[in-house]
């Protein structure tokens, strides 16, 4: 039986039993996670909850958090990944050039154990849509697995840093890149591509964890065979039932360059043996050039984790006219809804609606706005279709003012967190609108297939960001914190009844998960767009870590006064800043009198 370390504050409950809390999490619908003190994947568990059972850092002592140690990787672009921790080692993956580091947590200052440099082609930098970011790696079978910007997936030996395998997955010359974090179930690792603005053909693929061999690849658009749709595919809504809809809902010849890239998060339900993931915007982003629903872009898929065959799908924004995508995370949980137990996924879409969906069949149970929006009057729960405001549909060559939310949405890729202790989901969201102008766009392989021009600005209230707690059963906010800058980081929830998040101007905060009261804040050297995580060090102390390094979509507010410089520093916090660096292992010296100079020797130049 694994016991948490006793809390130092006598007012706190001591000795939380981790297996008991794990059972509570399981009852709430969460899939398996790494050991409580470790962090093996970006979301920590297969349900994408980003919840940690650690509670030594809690509401009573979080104000004592101080920097324990830092590490700079020297890469200045957007840092969107969380570190991984396995036993006594921390693993980091940088933005391009996608260097991996292993740090020794047993030694003062966590020195480098090994460094792996994959040297991806620099051509990829010119193809990346929105910065040369990387959303981190995953640990599986003794390997750290992650994606390179130039469309390779690599596996590195976790002990030595030696490359185990390297698999080419896409073509940079056609505008494809890879930025997502791999997701592992059993002997399969799932990866997808980026480039929805480049006319790519979106896909998700499964590779063998030990060899890197591709096992299957499912495209987001095209024929049923290409999308891996068979007789068992049963969407809940009738308008998504039919043969080859991924082809026939497009003009002739456009489906295979229609976007639907898979560049964000995957979840897994072990009881149903289903993986869940979202697809990106259709291409080109100019909707008048692609009449039809443009299936299966801006949608969520449920697929058999072994075979890859689709079981159901739901399109959040049919014929997406505003670049809203559907890639955001799907958090799995079990709830009681209208008196009945339901297995659900909770999804905060960029279209500014929060969905609670039955994950067994794709039925939308709830869909409520979580951010300011004016493109729709709501979601029809009988059909699953959004009610689009006609005046908010763009026309080529005509400036359409005050579209809310903008292309980056009411929330972008930055992942939320769920606490089974409170039943709430926590997310950083936006309060932004745009003026939109469309221009017809020709397709040239490897060049932008876009056509949208946007000017973004704050929505009513003047603030760009907000951090909220969301009730997925009631479909409404429990509380919210307004932020002047964008809240672009992921979220960490812990059994200490804390949630952690960061802002684009560099504030890292800890909040009471129940009340929404900010209990602690620390200003970092750059903006926070990474994902906080927590772990137990070899010294049995709980640490909280987050990268500082602004970039990605947060750069839309770079002209604001107070916007920070780029950065590349990992900050690791502990209570009072204690760590092996501050204890007996820290280097000390004894000072003494300076020896007298030999006779005839004087200072200065001879």
From TrEMBL:
Gene Ontology MF terms in the entry: oxidoreductase activity
UniProt-listed InterPro entries: PQQ_b-propeller_rpt, PQQ_MeOH/EtOH_DH, PQQ_rpt_dom, Quinoprotein_ADH-like_sf
Keywords: Metal-binding, Oxidoreductase, PQQ, Signal
Cofactor: pyrroloquinoline quinone
One Pfam family named in its UniProt record: PQQ
Keyword Glycoprotein in annotation: no
Keyword Ubl conjugation: no
Coiled coil: none
Signal peptide: 1-33
Spans annotated as Disordered: 582-606
Domain of life: Bacteria
Homology family: Belongs to the bacterial PQQ dehydrogenase family.
The name this protein goes by in its record: PQQ-dependent dehydrogenase, methanol/ethanol family
């Amino acid at each position: 039986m694994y016991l948490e370390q006793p809390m130092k504050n006598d007012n706190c409950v001591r000795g939380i039993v981790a297996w008991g809390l794990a059972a509570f999490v399981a009852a709430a619908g969460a899939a398996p996670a790494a050991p409580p003190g470790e962090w093996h994947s970006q979301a920590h568990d297969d349900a994408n909850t980003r919840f940690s059972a650690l509670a030594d850092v809690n509401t009573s002592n979080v104000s004592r958090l101080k920097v324990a140690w830092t590490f700079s990787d020297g890469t200045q672009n957007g840092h969107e990944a969380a570190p991984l921790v396995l036993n006594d080692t921390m693993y980091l993956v940088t933005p391009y050039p996608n260097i991996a580091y292993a740090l020794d947590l047993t030694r003062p200052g966590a020195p480098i154990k090994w460094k792996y440099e994959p040297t991806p082609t620099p051509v990829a930098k010119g193809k990346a849509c929105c910065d040369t970011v990387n959303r981190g790696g995953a640990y599986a079978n003794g390997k750290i697995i992650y994606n390179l910007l130039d469309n390779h997936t690599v596996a590195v030996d976790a002990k030595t840093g030696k490359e185990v395998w390297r698999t080419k997955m896409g073509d940079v010359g056609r505008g494809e890149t890879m930025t997502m974090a791999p997701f592992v179930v059993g002997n399969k690792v799932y990866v997808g591509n980026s480039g929805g603005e480049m006319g790519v053909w979106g896909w998700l693929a499964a590779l063998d964890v030990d060899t890197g061999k591709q096992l299957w690849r499912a495209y987001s658009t095209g024929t049923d065979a290409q999308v891996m749709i068979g007789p068992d595919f049963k969407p809940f809504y009738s308008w998504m039932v039919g043969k080859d809809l991924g082809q026939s809902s497009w003009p002739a010849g456009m489906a295979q360059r229609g976007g639907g890239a898979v560049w964000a998060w995957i979840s897994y339900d072990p009881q149903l043996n289903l993986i869940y993931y979202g697809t990106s915007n259709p291409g080109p982003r100019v909707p008048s050039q692609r009449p039809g629903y443009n299936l299966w872009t801006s949608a969520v898929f449920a697929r058999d984790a072994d075979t890859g065959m689709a079981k159901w799908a739901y399109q959040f924004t049919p014929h997406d006219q505003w670049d809203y995508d559907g890639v955001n995370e799907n958090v799995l949980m079990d709830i009681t809804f209208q008196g009945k137990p339901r297995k659900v996924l909770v999804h905060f879409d960029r279209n500014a609606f929060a969905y609670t969906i039955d994950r067994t069949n794709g039925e939308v149970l709830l869909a409520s706005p979580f951010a300011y929006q004016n493109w729709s009057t709501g979601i029809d729960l009988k059909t699953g279709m959004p009610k689009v405001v006609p005046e908010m549909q763009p026309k080529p060559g005509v400036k359409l003012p005050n579209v809310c939310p903008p292309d980056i949405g009411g929330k972008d890729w930055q992942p939320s967190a769920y606490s089974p202790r409170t039943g709430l989901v926590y997310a950083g969201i936006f309060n932004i609108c745009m003026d939109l102008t469309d221009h017809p766009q020709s397709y040239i392989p490897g060049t932008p297939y876009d056509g949208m021009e946007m000017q973004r600005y704050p929505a009513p209230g003047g603030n760009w960001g907000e951090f909220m707690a969301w009730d997925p059963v009631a479909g409404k906010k429990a509380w919210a914190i307004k932020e002047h800058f964008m809240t672009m980081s992921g979220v960490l929830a812990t059994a200490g009844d804390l949630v952690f998040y960061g802002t684009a101007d560099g504030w890292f905060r800890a909040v009471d998960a129940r009340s929404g009261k900010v209990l602690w804040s620390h200003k970092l050297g750059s903006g926070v767009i990474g994902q906080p995580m927590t772990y137990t060090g070899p010294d049995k102390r709980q640490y909280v870590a987050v990268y500082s390094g602004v970039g990605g979509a947060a750069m839309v507010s770079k002209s604001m006064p107070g916007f920070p410089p780029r950065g590349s520093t990992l900050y690791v916090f502990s209570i009072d800043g204690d760590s092996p660096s501050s204890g007996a292992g820290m280097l000390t010296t004894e000072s003494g009198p300076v020896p007298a100079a030999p006779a005839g020797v004087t200072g200065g130049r001879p």
